[in-house]
Amino acid sequence: MDVLLPEGWKAPIGYANGIAVPAGRIVFVAGQVGWGAQQIFHSEEIAPQFAQALDNVLAVLAEAGGRPEHICRITAFCIDKPGYLAARPELGKIWRARMGRHFPAMSMIFVADLLDSPGKIELEATAVIPEA
Fold first, then answer.
1. Among 4, 27, 49, 105, which residue has the least CB neighbours within 10 Å?
2. How far apart are CA 36 and CA 49, in angstroms?
3. How far apart are alpha carbons 111 and 126 in whole angstroms?
4. What are phi and psi of 130, to 5 degrees?
5. What is residue 46's predicted lDDT score, i.e. its pLDDT?
6. Residue 27 in contact with residue 129, Cβ under 8 Å?
7. Which among 88, 93, 89 has a CA at the least distance from the CA of 78?
8. Considering the domain 24-130 in this protein, what is its CATH number?
9. For residue 78, how far is the Cα from the chain centroid?
10. Alpha-carbon distance 105 to 63, whole Å?
11. Would you kindly state where each structural domain of the chain is located, as residue ranges?
12. HEC profile for 31-99?
């Protein structure tokens, strides 16, 4: 996996501008919200929902034989920009505990609402599992 950073560009913090990967098994993970396996939310706060949503992404990826470092792209949708910004230090800790220093290409999109209530954040991902 190669992180793409055009010459002269300042390095982004917490994401990559682009990722290039050799051929492999492509895995698309649908949007995952912060509920558990039985589709029940255990918190209405952004940080615990983010942790659960990321755990859900990683669980789906694991079903395909993938690991966190195979994720090439994550798109996040959040309904609470001030809450997200306030939670960033805690979100960073959650990220590092699950993803280490792997930062895929990412987009953060703030939206009016999510389908599943009381969801505050939703994560979708694309991964490429290297060929054996």
1. 4
2. 9
3. 21
4. -60, 150
5. 97
6. yes
7. 88
8. 3.30.1330.40
9. 12
10. 22
11. 24-130
12. EEECECCCCCECCCCHHHHHHHHHHHHHHHHHHCCCCHHHEEEEEEEECCHHHHHHHHHHHHHHHHHHH
Give me 122's structure tokens: 């939703």
Computed over every residue of the chain, the mean pLDDT equals: 96
Tokens 């969801």 locate to 119
Return the structure tokens found at 43: 């918190």
Stretch 59-81: mean pLDDT: 97
| pTM: predicted TM-score of the whole model, two decimal places | 0.94
30/40 Cα distance (integer angstroms): 17
Q: Which two tokens stand for residue 123?
A: 């994560």
Amino acid in position 24: G
